[in-house]
Amino acid sequence: MRNDAIRVAKTHAPHLLQRIMDGPGTVADNAEEMRQSAAIWEQNGNYNRAIDAYLEITEQHTQDVELLRECWERAVTISMTYEKDRCMDVITEVSQRFKMIGRYDAAAELFANIGHYEEAVRSFLDMNAFDRAREIVDSIRHYDIA
């Protein structure tokens, strides 16, 4: 019923959407509903709320690692695009979460992108990707020399 109210409000009464989203009974109980709520916050330009909503989705809500990856990466993308002041914190949080679900490669890439090279190397080593860890170290050395 809540999803119907949201759908109708989006189309016919956008000025009421915020009240519906904030109203009683708005706590989603599964990952898909939570993702839908996050997407609505995002569509309405409430990016901080969208980031928080995407990050609320954890392995306690779903065992679908792909869904978790999508939601957490969406939080990173929104923070990089619209909420730059939160970007480092969001990327650090998502990187740690990726490691917890065994996505060491994704964690390493995020760590490297924000200059946390030691964490990136550790993540690559955790997945026995020695060549990729060496690439990070070599790129740091090259940068230091230049």
Q: Tell me the number of strands.
A: 0
Indicate the overall shape: elongated
Main β-sheet description: none
In N-to-C order, the SSE pattern is: HHHHHHHHH
Q: How large is the radius of gyration?
A: 18 Å
| Average pLDDT reading | 87
- State the helix count: 9
User: Unreliable stretches, pLDDT < 50, 5 or more residues?
Assistant: none
Distance between the termini: 61 Å
Describe this structure as you would to a colleague.
This protein has helices at residues 2-12, 14-22, 31-43, 47-56, 65-81, 87-100, 104-113, 117-126, 130-145. The chain has 146 residues and is mainly alpha-helical. The chain is elongated.
Topology:
Elements: H1 2-12, H2 14-22, H3 31-43, H4 47-56, H5 65-81, H6 87-100, H7 104-113, H8 117-126, H9 130-145
Task: Give a summary of the structure in a few sentences.
It is built from nine helices and no strands. The protein is mainly alpha-helical and 146 residues long.
